[in-house]
Amino acid sequence: MQQFLPAEGTILKLSDHISVGFDAVRLCEAIAKIGYEPYTAIMDLVDNSVTAGAKEIKVTLGLHEGKTLKSKNGVAYYQIVDNGKGMNEDEIVNAFKIGSERNYSENSLSKYGMGLKSAGLSLGTSISIFSKKNKALSYKYTFDLEVIKKINQISVVRTQLTDEETEQANILLSGKSGTVVTISGCENINQSSPNLTITKLRERLGVVYSNFLSRPKPPLSILFRVVKNNEDTDFEEATPKDLLFLEEAKKHTDWNPKTYDFATPYLVLDELWDAFKDKNDEPLSKIRIQAVAFPQAVLADTKSPLSPESKEKIRAYRISRENSGFFIYRNGRLIRWGDSLGRPNGKPLIGKDDINLRFRFEILTEHDDILHVDVSKQRLEIDDEILGSLENVVSQAIRTAKQIRQACQEKLKVRHTEGESFNQTVIDVTEDDPQELSKGSPNKTTLERQNKLNQEAQKKLQEIKSKRESNDTSDSESVATDSSLFKKIRYEENFPPRQLWKTFFDSLHGAFIIVNKSHPFFEEFISRFENGTPERLTIEALMFSAGVAENNVFNYEHDIDTTKLENAFRRFHRNIDSFLVDWAYENLGEE
């Protein structure tokens, strides 16, 4: 391909350079859309304070008058106050440059010189800074998008602090140095509720900055609060939190199913990964990878056979899908929370079932280019070749975590009610007839039919209750019947006769079905799949959906007499029963 480039050695004249310029407003709007949530933008601003050597950082969310924590776009301003080294006029102006000058220390939390502008403009349309250095207060410098729009030029407005602002500045910056960053114009940005932001800060600050909060020298304290009507509200303090519980996990390194207590985290990987070279083929620092496998969260439930102390211990681990995967630290600061890692269109390293596994992955500034760390320092990408190497490193940890999950499932098996997992999956699923959604309240005929079905259902539920009480059993099924969750699918022996399941309708809770555990199809096939497995849930969903449809047809198909409908559904179930019985016997013993 022909390249239109200056020949080697060509001397370009000044007149050969044509400045293309840029649109100041569109550039500002673009850097504001890098991909921040309010809480991640706040933490990017906190990074600047950490880089400035602050020992105390205070974050305030000020609410608009008349707004509550649950109000969307309820924040009037954000303010970050630190007691770091402070800035003089030149340093403040440089901080506002798009791509500020490189003057970071080695392995700084900063990188591209974009954080203040991109994070700030994602929160509001105006960023103001005043600072104290060597006991001297600066002017106030404001980067205002509305001003930039008027002059189409990236600039800051410098103003003298008013007497009131000076008094406030001396209160906020009571030491020898420090900086105050205030973001306003927040009503111009579409944001989530302040409650969500403060909740995320409460959950994450202690984890993201754990290394800094727990260090003895220099100590660091991060505080945060929400204020209404500029009232002086107390701050909450972020406490360091190691979400991998490494200190505890390091005491347990050789997992053994025979000695497992079902409440202890295990260190299943601790390795220095040597897979990186720079563009000059020089080796980069090794990356330390650690992995901890946790018990299953369900072992903390009320029906778990573990002791109250063990349940409390498990709850403290915060085991969830959001809290699983790779926790990637850059220069000691968490930049990726629970990343599954993987190829864009391929299988991730951490699957949806690996909910009890967490990795700690520590990189330095020198790894930024090879891992494609982005401008916001929130995302990275791993090339296929490197990803293949990583897969080999973590594979054994993933296998061990799976073995731990299986052990937990075995522990729960005798106490776990059949159908309980399915009941959890349909809590928020509607059972409406799609043809009836726009017709308002049910008519008299439908109400009469629902009442008839409800009476039958209550009679059957009372029979089940009486049977259990008379048997006084303590098996897995009876243990779970006192749950407050209405059971949409239930399992019984020898009921209904010659049917796999029978449909019922409760006037308060809607459809439910009873599955016959004595039916050949259940005995030979459904029973192979444990409660909560994808296979069992799929079969339960199909039976239950048929039950919902049966109820809706019976309740709303007014052109057909109820006796004829009942006969039709009896025939329907006899056909299902006949086929499944024959199929089960023909395939008896098949795996």
Automatic annotation (TrEMBL):
Keywords: ATP-binding, Nucleotide-binding. InterPro entries: HATPase_C_sf. GO terms for molecular function: ATP binding. The keyword Acetylation does not apply. Residues 424-479 are annotated as: Disordered. It comes from the Bacteria. Residues 446-471 have a biased composition (Basic and acidic residues). This is ATP-binding protein. It comes from Pseudomonas mercuritolerans. The lineage of its organism: Bacteria, Pseudomonadati, Pseudomonadota, Gammaproteobacteria, Pseudomonadales.
